Structure formats: structure tokens, C-alpha cells
Amino acid sequence: MPLPHNALPRPLLVGAGVLALLLGSGAFGQSVPETAETEDDASVVPFALPQSGPFEPADIEIENDQAIADWFRSAHANAAAEAFRHWDEEGEIESSCATCHSGEGFRDFHGLDGSEAGVVDGPIDVGGVVDCGTCHNAGLAQISEVTLPSGVAHPVQGVEASCLTCHQGRAAGGDVEEAVADLALDEPDPSLRFINPHYATAAATWLGGYGASGYHYEGRDYSGRFFHARPVESCNSCHEPHTLEVEFEPCLTCHQADSPQDIRISRQSYDGSGDTSVGIRSDIEANANRLLDMIRAYADEVAGVPMIHDGTRYPYFFTDANGDGAVDMADGAPVAYGAWTPRSLRTVFNWKLVTSDPGAYAHNPAYALELLHDSIADLAGPLGIDMDALDLLR
Ligand code: HEC
Ligand code: HEC
Ligand code: HEC
Ligand code: HEC
Ligand code: HEC
User: Fold this and answer.
1) SUPFAM superfamilies, from UniProt (predicted)?
2) 112 C-alpha to ligand 3 centroid (Å)
3) CA torsion sign, 180 to 164 to 314 to 128?
4) 385 phi and psi, to 5 degrees?
5) Contact 2, 63 (CB under 8 A)
6) What is the reported pLDDT for 60?
């Protein structure tokens, strides 16, 4: 680590000064004001010269280099992604979206820019990404809890406040319950629309039944937060925070596998295949595929309006009223599926929540399996499928 006394005053660092600004004090988990004094803390010095000379500029190791290079090729820095370009035409990011779609919006929401906390006052410019100052921000230490879409307030510490803010999704099982309240279970209702849990919902699955993001069936218990094991208890113990990649090597101290996807501890099969030589991810995937097939069969046979799933365009479920295998079009646009019943809406919510998190198998395999199992059981009745014969495990 660089020594604090050697830290250059920021104005001397052309270019780097800009980054120092982006970095703020460079500290997280510490409530220090953003002043030069913070550079006394060795752990927060972003730029420093080697202890003794003489040296060539090329010999100077700038610690930030690696972090910047890693971040730059990550999804967080991908300014061309739909997640950051979606508002280009409007020229400004809607306040209800800005919290998670720009570092500037994130700081505004949490009041890290001096504005009121808990709301985006905006306007938030387009063109932002998840920049350095989103996670390297002394103000994060003041955030003691993050409120999830279910209304549950989860206590947080330090940088985890950032991951949990943006990767919690936007809707919860409670929203589905509200939408379907008092409606007949198997009757299509035109007021019902697909409720999207949103994307990259890792924190939602991770917190499990306690976070209450899924649609929970009455009388069923759901596994809570996946505590896993001490060394892998937080987002950044598995994800390198700049590349965002999962570091596989540490997993091997406890697991024997060729890849994260191949990890399995459970000696039972959850998907009826009886195959326990594959990763637990395989069981989750098989049950998710089965559930989607059943949702489509239900649309056809019970709701009476065939459905087509297209994962590449919103809102993903479309009408195929004449059952010819092609999405119906109206005024040149595909017709969103419109024959949801309370039963299909709640099952599709769970399907989408689980599949919106490609890491569900590591974030909370038990919760993912429970949501899928209960949703499959929900549809089995009206479809006349014998649940026992499927040989699934919850
Ligand atoms: C709680 C945080 C959060 C909020 C609020 C939020 N989003 Fe997102 N959104 C995300 C995350 C995280 C992703 C990244 C998913 C990925 O591509 O990996 C995402 C992705 C997207 C995408 C890209 C989807 C794709 O298929 O690549 C769109 C479009 C989007 N969001 C639209 C919106 C809109 C519109 C709003 C406001 C009405 C909004 N989001 C509010 C977190 C949020
Ligand atoms: C998504 C959150 C996030 C973003 C965005 C981010 N960082 Fe980091 N950064 C972290 C975390 C978490 C650590 C602590 C890593 C650890 O404890 O091992 C860290 C550590 C660092 C370190 C210490 C050395 C290291 O690599 O561990 C430097 C330097 C750094 N970040 C610079 C930056 C710069 C510069 C940017 C922007 C180009 C940036 N970070 C963007 C989360 C982030
Ligand atoms: C300001 C909101 C925000 C914060 C804070 C944030 N993320 Fe993200 N994250 C996003 C968005 C948006 C995307 C999708 C970007 C894209 O599509 O290019 C994403 C993508 C990811 C991905 C997917 C990478 C891939 O290759 O698709 C991972 C993993 C991730 N984030 C982990 C984290 C972790 C861990 C933290 C906390 C250290 C964190 N994120 C903090 C918004 C955020
Ligand atoms: C036990 C290790 C572990 C922990 C803890 C963990 N993750 Fe993951 N995460 C993974 C694995 C493994 C994957 C799946 C990688 C794959 O299969 O490609 C993943 C996938 C993801 C993805 C999807 C990446 C993509 O390619 O689209 C996001 C986003 C994500 N994690 C965010 C988080 C956040 C936020 C947290 C903390 C709430 C977290 N993760 C905690 C291991 C972990
Ligand atoms: C310190 C030991 C330890 C480390 C390190 C560790 N795990 Fe685990 N892992 C466990 C334990 C213990 C369980 C069982 C936990 C439980 O079911 O409550 C588990 C369960 C899992 C499961 C579910 C398996 C199943 O059959 O249900 C997956 C997937 C997983 N770990 C992935 C990972 C990944 C990916 C990493 C590395 C990023 C990792 N683990 C690192 C100890 C560890």
C-alpha cells in the first residue's frame, strides 16, 4: 500500500485529479468529510509516489490503474448498454429510474449530493454509468438500511448499501397480491398486466423469504437470507467489485467442482431427474423450464388464449389468439399478453424473478427452488397434472 506522506496534493495531478474527484475521499465505511485530511488514511490514498527516488514516470505505480482498467471493461461502465441508453431520447432519466441507472441518480437518491435522501430530485442527465463515486463515497457509511420493494427495511453496512440499492428489483410478491386481490383465480381479467420484478435481481434472491421479493403462497415457509458461509457472506466476497466477475478459486476451499455452475452439495434431486452429478443450477433451470411450459399450457387450456414468450422484448409475453405460433400484431406492434388470471400472474412473477437472476443458484438456491416448486404445484391442479408423479422436491 502507498504511504500517506507521499501522497501528492491533488492539484498537481493533471487528469488524475479528475479521478480523485470522482473517487471523492476514496473511503467507504468511514464517515470522513471530503477534505485533504482524509489522505492521511493509508487505505484511502488514491495516488502516491514511491517512497524514494530517483524514478522514471513509468516506474510509478498508480494503484488506481488496475481498478480503472477492470471497471472500464465491466457492465457497470458499459455506456452503450440499454440500461444506460434507455432514456437518450428523453434527454434526462426519469426520477423513478435514475437511482439505479446512473451514479448521479444514485447519489441524489441517497442524499449524497447534499439533497434530500430517499427521493431523486433530479433532473438526472443521461450518459451516466455506475461510476467510481457510486461505491467510493464516504456518505455510504451513513446509510444504515435499504428498503426493498416488499417494504422490508434491511440493515446495511458500507459499500453493500450500493449493491443492495440497485440489485433489489422493482416489484415484490406483495404487488402481485394487491393486483389480484378479490379476482377469481382462473378467470382472465383485462385489468391484469404482467408485473416485472425487473433485472439483475441478485439481492432479492439473496435475501430470500425474509426479503419477501417472491410471491409467497399461504401456509408455506420460505428460506430466508442465504448465509452460506463466513468467507462468502457478502456480494464482494464473491464478485470482484470492478470486473464484477466471480472469483472461482476461493470457492474451491469448500467446494469441489470445475466451475461455479457445477457446484452441488445437495444429495437429492429437485427436478425429478434423479441426477445429482450436476450442479444445483441444473435443477433450478429444469424446474424453471418446466414452470414456463406449464404457464403456456395454462394460458392455452385454462385461460383460453395462447401465449408466446419472447425473452428479447418487453413485456416478454405476447398474445397468439389464433394459436398459429406467431405473435399477434396490432398497428405494427406486438400485442402484449392480455389474458392473465390471478393464478398465471403470480406464477409468472416467480418464474421471472428466479430467471432474472442468473446467479440464483449461488445467491439462494433453496429460495429459488421453493418459489418454482410452489408455482408448479399451483398450476398442476387446473392442468390436471399429478404433482406426485413429477417427483419434484421442495
Ligand atoms: C432498484 C434499481 C432499479 C430501478 C429503480 C430501475 N432499474 Fe432498470 N435496471 C436495474 C438493473 C440493476 C438493471 C441491469 C440489468 C442487467 O442488464 O444486467 C436494469 C436494467 C434495465 C433495462 C435494461 C433491460 C435489458 O433487457 O437489458 C431497462 C430498459 C430498464 N432497466 C428500465 C428501467 C426503467 C424504465 C426504470 C424506471 C421506470 C428502471 N429501469 C428503474 C435496476 C433498476
Ligand atoms: C460497484 C462498486 C464500485 C465501483 C463502481 C468502483 N469500485 Fe473501487 N472498490 C470497490 C470495492 C468494494 C473495493 C474494495 C475491494 C476490497 O476490499 O478488496 C474497491 C477498491 C478499490 C481500490 C483499492 C484497490 C483494489 O482494487 O482493491 C481502488 C484503487 C479503487 N477501488 C478504485 C476505483 C476506481 C478508480 C473506480 C472507478 C473507475 C472504482 N474503484 C469503481 C467498489 C467499487
Ligand atoms: C447505481 C446502481 C448500481 C450499483 C450501486 C451497483 N450496480 Fe451492479 N449493475 C447495475 C446495472 C445498471 C447493471 C447492468 C449494466 C449493463 O447492462 O451494462 C449492473 C450489472 C452488474 C453485474 C452484472 C455483470 C454482467 O456481466 O452482466 C454484476 C455482477 C453486478 N452489477 C454486481 C454489483 C455489485 C457486487 C455491486 C456492489 C459492489 C453493484 N453491482 C452495485 C447497477 C448497479
Ligand atoms: C457465494 C458467492 C456469491 C455471492 C455472495 C454473491 N454472488 Fe452474485 N453471483 C455469483 C455467481 C456464482 C453468479 C453466476 C455466475 C455465472 O453463472 O455466470 C452470480 C451472478 C450475479 C449476477 C448476474 C451476473 C450476470 O452475468 O448477469 C449479479 C448481478 C450478481 N451476481 C450480483 C450480486 C450481488 C448484488 C450480490 C450481493 C447481494 C451477490 N451477487 C452475491 C456468486 C455470488
Ligand atoms: C467457507 C466455505 C465455502 C466457500 C468459500 C464457498 N462455499 Fe458455497 N457452500 C458452502 C456451504 C457450507 C454450503 C451449504 C450451505 C447451506 O446449504 O446452508 C454451500 C452451498 C453452495 C451452493 C448450493 C449447493 C447446493 O447443492 O445447494 C452453491 C451453488 C455454492 N455454495 C456456490 C459457491 C460459490 C460459487 C463459491 C465461491 C464464489 C462458494 N460457494 C464458496 C461453503 C462454502
Assistant:
1) Multiheme cytochromes
2) 19
3) positive
4) -95, 135
5) yes
6) 66
Every domain of the chain and the residues it spans: 4-69, 77-166, 173-304+339-390
The pLDDT value recorded for residue 55 is 63
Residue 68 Cα: closest atom of ligand 2: 38
Sign of CA dihedral 13, 16, 17, 23: negative
pLDDT band at 42 (very low <50, low <70, confident <90, very high): very low
Q: Which of 82, 84, 97, 314 to mutate to test the pocket of ligand 1 (most atoms within 8 A of CB)?
A: 97
- CA separation for the pair 214, 366 (Å, rounded): 13
Cell of 336: 402484449
Contacts of 255 by beta carbon, 8 Å cutoff, 6+ apart = 263, 265
C-beta separation of 177 from 333 below 8 A: no
Which residue in the block uniquely carries the three cell numbers 430470500?
208
Cβ of 277 closer than 6 Å to ligand 5, yes or no, is no
User: Considering only CA atoms, which residue is closest to atom 41 of ligand 4?
Assistant: 235
Least confident of 46-60, 103-117, 218-232, 291-305: 46-60
Instruction: Name the strand (E) or helix (H) holding 370.
Output: helix 365-383
Report, as an integer, the average pLDDT of 130-158: 96
What 3 state SS string does the chain have? CCCHHHCCCHHHCCCHHHHHHHHCCCCCCCCCCCCHHHHHCHHHCCCCCCCCCCCCHHHCCCCHHHHHHHHHCCHHHCCCCHHHHCCCCCCEECHHHHHHHCHHHHHHHCCCCCCCCCCCCCCEECCCCCCHHHHCCHHHHHCCEEECCCCCEEECCCCHHHHHHHCCCCCCHHHHHHHHCCCCCCCCCCCCCCCCCCCCCHHHHHHHHHHCCCCCCCCCCCCCCCCCCHHHCCHHHHECCCCCCECCHHHHHCCCCCCHHHCCCCCCCCCCCCCCCCCHHHHHHHHHHHHHHHHHHHHHHHHCCCEEECCCCCCCEEECCCCCCCCCEECCEECECCCCCHHHHHHHHHHHHHHCCCCHHHHCHHHHHHHHHHHHHHHHHHHCCCHHHHCCCC
